[in-house]
Design brief:
The chain is of the alpha/beta class and 123 residues long. It contains five helices and five strands. The chain has one domain: Response regulator (Rossmann fold, 3-Layer(aba) Sandwich), CATH 3.40.50.2300. Helix content is 49%, strand content 24%. It is globular, with a radius of gyration of 13 Å. The two termini are 18 Å apart.
Length: 123
C-alpha cells in the first residue's frame, strides 16, 4: 500500500482525491495539508510515498513548497495539481524543479490513479 499526502487549500478537491485514493485498492490517503507550510511538516511526520500538491495555495504556494521539499529530499515523488488554465505556464518550471508530473483539474479518477501509479513505478 503506497501512502499519499494531499496538499490543497480546497477541502472539496482534497475530499475528491481522498475518495479516488480510497477506491484504488493500492493507494492510501494519509493526510491533507491546506498549504505548503503544513505540507512540509506532514511530509516529515507521515513519510508519504508520493505527494499530490496544488500549485496555487496561500502562505506557501506549490512551487515554493516543491522547491523546499526537493531540497530536503531529492528523491521525493511529487505530482503537482493545477487548473487547466494554469498548467501550460508552470508545467516546465515545476518539472525542472523536480515534480514528476502535473495533473490538471478537473480530473478523472482513472487519470489520477494512472499518473500516481506510473510515478510510483518510476515512470
Amino acid at each position: 500500500m503506497h501512502k499519499v499526502l494531499v496538499v490543497d487549500d480546497s477541502i472539496t478537491v482534497a475530499r475528491q482525491l481522498q475518495k479516488i485514493l480510497e477506491s484504488s485498492g493500492d493507494l492510501q490517503f494519509v493526510g491533507h495539508a491546506k498549504n505548503g507550510a503544513e505540507a512540509l511538516k506532514m511530509k516529515a511526520t507521515e513519510n508519504p510515498d508520493i505527494v499530490c500538491m496544488d500549485m496555487s495555495m496561500p502562505i506557501m504556494d506549490g512551487v515554493q513548497t516543491l522547491r523546499a521539499m526537493i531540497a530536503k529530499d531529492p528523491n521525493a515523488k511529487v505530482v503537482m495539481i493545477s487548473s487547466l488554465a494554469g498548467v501550460g505556464d508552470k508545467f516546465n518550471e515545476v518539472i525542472k524543479l523536480g515534480a514528476k508530473n502535473v495533473l490538471a483539474k478537473p480530473f478523472e479518477a482513472e487519470q489520477v490513479l494512472a499518473t500516481l501509479r506510473a510515478v510510483l513505478a518510476g515512470g
